[in-house]
Amino acid sequence: MTVALSATLIATTTLTVSASTASADDASVYTSASPLPSGQNGDVVKSQPSTYNGAKATRIQYLSRDNKDKQVAVSGTVLVPTTPWNGPGERPVVAYAPFTFGMGAQCAPSKTLAGEGARDLVSGFQGGFVDALLGAGFAVAQTDYLGPWVEGSGDHPYVNRLSEAHTVLDVIRAAQRLPGTGLPSNGPVGVAGYSEGGSAAAAAAELASTYAPELNVKGVYSGAPPADKAVLAKSLDGGMYAGFLGYALVGINQAYPEANLVGLANPAGAELFLQARQTCTLDAVFRFMFKQTSSLTKNGQPVSSYLTQPPFDAIIAENRIGTLKPAMPTMVQQSPTDDVIPAAVGKQMAKDWCDKGANVQWKDLASFSPFFSHALGMPTASADAAAWLRSVFNGQAGTGNCGRF
């Protein structure tokens, strides 16, 4: 499922270490200094030219924060269309929050978008979402989230609300601060994501006003967000997409090591944990399909039974999305027949926001088939996200449809 990474990196530049004193490996955005250089959230640590059709692409390493407020190094890509912006005002920057791409270092979207790493059907969908945003004329700031793609950063804290919100908001800051892009430092911005990216975008919508109040966030699109992990712990268990639950357990262990989640595992569970850490999405889906978590714990109980008990109940509560009012217009979209994330989860998040007085537009995502509707909805989601954000940047966000869904 994977291809070897190229041994030779493309020509690089770095903003903190001069080319005359840094080796190619040192300059790579996937290599982190220890300790990290001092700086503010969103500061660009390193950059290097990348490749992408129709855009000037630059891979970056930037500063952000994990769920414990520790400063971390994160990789990503800034893409600026080669065509002029034909909308009102200055060209907007849209943070693209990727959907589930995996846990291995070879899976990072900043690699697969450049034709490197582990390229598969999922990485093709990632490119399709980026293409839709670029095609609307937006600059795209794509985050890899926190994870092992930057050496020494540990496992990916999968669907962690705080960590992913921080990395999404900080990649916008990084795009605005990156020299040579022609992007305004305080222009209009938006956020878009689907599935894992939908929850990251939604979390960013909730935290933007406090974590990044200077950003002029005009709108946030959240597609099929896994907003309530307690529901997913039951719905994914033993199903076709049980691998995503495995990812969530790896993510909890990374973000909350004090909870000692791995201490609950039997030898089979410990082995699955180690395997999941190396996989990309499709590999995990096929490898762990229909796995029952009750076969992976020491006492034979499913993982969901632990999540109602301390300390995991507090972790689940901290990662539930829908508890804070977004300050900007939002669109939430999901297929009624979503086969990965129950549609009720996304709709409940949208209703929770409505109850808090937010401007929310709910839209059913058109599905071509009740089978694989989550994956097959992605192309429609990307087109709808780009179209809605275009209307937002044109000052036509509307007042939403709370109370009518």
From TrEMBL:
Name any one GO molecular function. Answer: triacylglycerol lipase activity
- UniProt keyword annotations, A-Z: Signal
Q: Which domain of life is it from?
A: Bacteria
Kindly indicate where the leader peptide sits in this chain. 1-24
Q: Which Pfam families match?
A: LIP
Where is composition skewed (Polar residues) in this entry? 35-50
> Region Disordered: what ranges?
29-50
InterPro entries named in the record? AB_hydrolase_fold (IPR029058), Lipase_secreted (IPR005152)
* GO biological process terms held by the UniProt record: lipid catabolic process
* PANTHER family assigned: LIPASE 5, PTHR34853
Tell me what this protein is called.
Lipase
Species this chain originates from: Amycolatopsis umgeniensis
Q: What is the lineage of its organism?
A: Bacteria, Bacillati, Actinomycetota, Actinomycetes, Pseudonocardiales
